[in-house]
Amino acid sequence: MKKVFSGIKPSGDIHIGNYLGAIKGWVDSQDDFDNIFCIVDLHAITVQQDPKILKEKIRETAGLLLACGIDSEKSVLFVQSHISAHSELAWILNCFTPMGWMQRMTQFKEKSEGQKDKVSVGLFDYPALMSADILLYDTDIVPVGEDQTQHVELARDIAKRFNSIYGQVFNVPKAVVTKPGARIMGLQKPENKMSKGGSDTIGLLDSADDIRKKIASAVTDSDNEIKFDSNRAGIYNLLTIYELFSGLDQGEIEKKFAEKGYADFKKDLAEVVVVDLEPIREKYNDIKESGEIEKILEKGADKVRPIAEKKLKEVKNIIGLG
Ligand code: AMP
Ligand code: TRP
Predict the structure, then answer these.
(1) Domains of the chain
(2) Parallel, antiparallel or unpaired: strands 141-143 and 174-176
């Protein structure tokens, strides 16, 4: 079976962009692959975090992944910092990554804009750690949202460069992006992607009332025509969310709302979102109370540790360390 690896940061609230762009795809293809899913806490600290909240968010993220349907019997779920090989390989990969490659990363440019002295070296170097995550496990497939494809491309380039010097050490992975859903946009600012900590997100743990309110006030336009037109960012994004939650195709959706206005559409949209998210929230509360999360994360780390350590040892040996 092909090997899947993907990760999610335990910072901020997990939102429907994460769900539709990544988590849902992970859940749906669990039976087809060997899966490893990682809560990337070392990536979270590239920007400052409150220690107490970070620890809670790591457990919350794990609980939410399980509530969304990640099955710990079929997939491995673990916390990045539990396996020190990730940091160690990241350092080694740093030494094989030309500055110019790293400087091309658009996410860093966006995140560091106007921040100057506040930006950490870690934020700049973030893709080397992500490459280490992926390359430690001979990953074939990396299912991510569109914003991460450039980082996976970099992991491929680093793997190829390393292999060209030392022979076939790393498997060269491939990003897989699920469309539509690969880029869910903000509700208030549909020109920007929905992101953690943004005010225009729908969190997986939001109450039904909050979801209704947020959707009711989402930005649209004055056309009042319900059509999938990518030039009309606001309504297009809402329609995409509708498509993914309802399972209907675009033609069916346009027909359903042909005679209706935005207010009716938004009401329906809120209901399809609420109907899907409510069971996730309930399941999350059950899992949290069961006390199982800690055990699952420990078991996950125990499963991946030997794989990661073996690969790291091979790399260290081949480059002459120790
Ligand atoms: P992050 O929250 O940045 O750790 O992202 C976890 C996963 O969710 C990654 O695969 C991202 O590409 C994906 N993701 C994050 N935001 C969005 C979004 N607005 N639309 C689609 N996918 C997203
Ligand atoms: N950088 C990814 C994000 O922000 C998270 C991540 C870290 C990841 N390591 C990874 C995703 C490895 C895929 C594979 O979304």
Answers:
(1) 3-183+291-319 (3.40.50.620), 208-285 (1.10.240.10)
(2) parallel
